[in-house]
Amino acid sequence: MSRLFMFEKPLGMRDTLPDLYETKSRVRTEIGEEMKKWGYQFIETPTLEYYETIGAASAILDQQLFKLLDQQGHTLVLRPDMTAPIARVAASKLLQEDLPLRLAYSANVYRAQQREGGRPAEFEQIGVECIADETISADAEVIALMISTLTAAGLNNFQISVGHIGFVQQLFLQILGTEERANALTKFLYEKNYVGYREHVKNLALSSIDKQRLLEFLKLRGGEEVIEWALKIIENEQGKEAILQLKQLWDIVVDYGEESRLKFDLTLVSHMSYYTGILFEVYADQVGFPIGNGGRYNFLLQKFGKDTAATGFALRLDRLLEALGQIEKTAPTHCIIFSEERRQEAFKVAKEKRAKGIRTVLQDINGVKNVDACTSQYEDIVYLIGKAGRGQA
């Protein structure tokens, strides 16, 4: 193993410098305030969780988990997502009356990377979970809320792709017959390898009609018209029910007035294996990956002893900032440079400025080796040096 340089960081870890931190803070605050307006309450969960509980319940691959041992010999993980920890809290402490819960969070999650490739191993998610509400209204609510939060953050150009994992599963099982064969084909969708998908379908031992249905499936993208197309392809009742759920979702989103943000993509699948129904991703200009995703997960809470439905979404704050495109400068700061004999006066002036909401730095003249370099970073400089009355620069 080569020796690490003093400035080296673990693989996938990032520093956040002041301007980026200020931008993240603003965006986080605006999104959080919007979530609160919709009645969602923020909670926190530990950074460390037990591997046997959260590690096992999470949909993140085992090789992506950061693991360590505590002093009692238990294997711990750095939380790889927030949905599983919130499911644990909801099932154990909050779902006493089986009433719908609306919970929100803003937290860092950790997923190990095998190579750099620009992929962070630590990133911040901000999102919501709507628990114990199995209606399509709840799915529509979290989508409408996601639209509202992105707009509040200042993002205008984005689009949401919506699918239904149940439809994909039922169509593939109906045509291919086994879960193994269905999963092999689904993998091409997850990788968005549509060329590989087509080649795989051509080589399957199927009738020409079934092959054509699987190829036509790739065209199920667009607006409300996709509903009718999908109903012509699917034959079993469970698959049709999935499409009717999407039709109901569309009608509710229309009532929210947000249908222009929505496009159906029935080829959409996710690496998050706990999704059971409607799922979605949000894309923005200039960003090659989804900046957020979500969906329905009706069985996850069973792992924590509670049989109830849930849906939610998570936004990737780093990708959202990339979509916004501009890192803000930190707010203007004033500086008061003082000498010992005018220190008390300087403290009083600084206190008055801060009371007005002005960021103010106090700087002892003896700590400044280069006054010009020091003062160039501030909007306004006040010199309180020597005898009173020397004035302001």
From TrEMBL:
Keywords from the named record: Amino-acid biosynthesis, Cytoplasm, Glycosyltransferase, Histidine biosynthesis, Transferase
Main location: cytoplasm
GO molecular function, one term: glycosyltransferase activity
Pathway in which the depicted protein is active: Amino-acid biosynthesis; L-histidine biosynthesis; L-histidine from 5-phospho-alpha-D-ribose 1-diphosphate: step 1/9
Pfam families, alphabetized: HisZ-like (PF21996), tRNA-synt_His (PF13393)
Ranges for domain Aminoacyl-transfer RNA synthetases class-II family profile: 12-332
Cellular compartment(s): Cytoplasm
Record-linked InterPro entries: aa-tRNA-synth_II, aa-tRNA-synth_II/BPL/LPL, HisRS-like_core, HisRS/HisZ, HisZ, HisZ-C
Leftover remarks: This function is generally fulfilled by the C-terminal part of HisG, which is missing in some bacteria such as this one.
Family named by the database record: Belongs to the class-II aminoacyl-tRNA synthetase family. HisZ subfamily.
Annotated NCBIfam families: hisZ_biosyn_reg (TIGR00443), PRK12292.2-4 (NF008941)
Subunit: Heteromultimer composed of HisG and HisZ subunits.
Chain's role: Required for the first step of histidine biosynthesis. May allow the feedback regulation of ATP phosphoribosyltransferase activity by histidine.
Protein name: ATP phosphoribosyltransferase regulatory subunit
Record lineage: Bacteria, Bacillati, Bacillota, Bacilli, Bacillales
Gene name in the database record: hisZ
